[in-house]
Amino acid sequence: MRDIEEFLNQLTLPPSTSEAPSVYAFSLHKSGSTLLFNMLSDLAPHAGLTYFSMQDQMFINGIMPNSEIPNSKLFFKPKGYLYGGFRFFPQAYKLENLNNHKKILLIRNPMDALVSMYFSRKKSHAIPKKGLLREVWLKRRESADAQDIEAFVKEKYKSHIKRIKSYKEILSQDNCVIYRYEDIIYDKLSFLKNICQQYGWVIEEKILTKIVNKYDVFPETEKEESHVRQVHPGNYKKKLSAETQQFLELEFQDILEAFGYSVSPTSAFSRLSA
């Protein structure tokens, strides 16, 4: 508790003089979230808004990401900000009048997300330099290093389902637009144009193109120790056994179908027969 108090006492919301309505951007772990938030951080000033991520600030300071934030309204203002960095919906602190604000959610096939999570935890994810969260991440790295990928995904899939379902309350809101990683990764310019349309921003295409060119990275070969490991969708088909793929398809079937992902006939039949 003392760590959180010290963190909040030192935390300063960067200034904004804009009268434009604040907007929000959400994603999930290993679902293109870093790509999304990096591009939005660069884009926000061109819309006259200030980018701010509470969860990123908590990570840097070693604070558990869903710790309670008293008086969260001091940090979430109705005007002037683009709030990003969310990789799950925060339940411990309140986002003021969120239903009144335009928002986006970037998702990814959860099987690809789990595979990416394995390599990230094992080799590439940054570790906080201090705080309780540092100890948590050191244990996560040790645990992932001791597991093979099959065991890891079977252990972690339930927590990923929980993170996806944490967004349930915003999915039905008219001012929420959902994007899939698989649909945007090869056409980031159209993605940014669509985001601008959703938020009601008018930004020159040359600015969007410059931002896209900065982040449009595709490694020639897989780099397991890099944050940008391999990018292309469908990697779970190469990394997981057919048995594990079928297991995960059954567990994620409702989510896969809800977001328009295909489910193999074998998995669909097994679900009906259960």
UniProtKB/TrEMBL annotation:
Residues 99-214 form the Sulfotransferase domain. Coiled coil: none annotated. SUPFAM superfamilies: P-loop containing nucleoside triphosphate hydrolases (SSF52540). It comes from the Bacteria. InterPro entries: P-loop_NTPase (IPR027417), Sulfotransferase_dom (IPR000863). GO terms for molecular function: sulfotransferase activity. This is Sulfotransferase domain-containing protein. The lineage of its organism: Bacteria, Pseudomonadati, Pseudomonadota, Gammaproteobacteria, Thiotrichales.
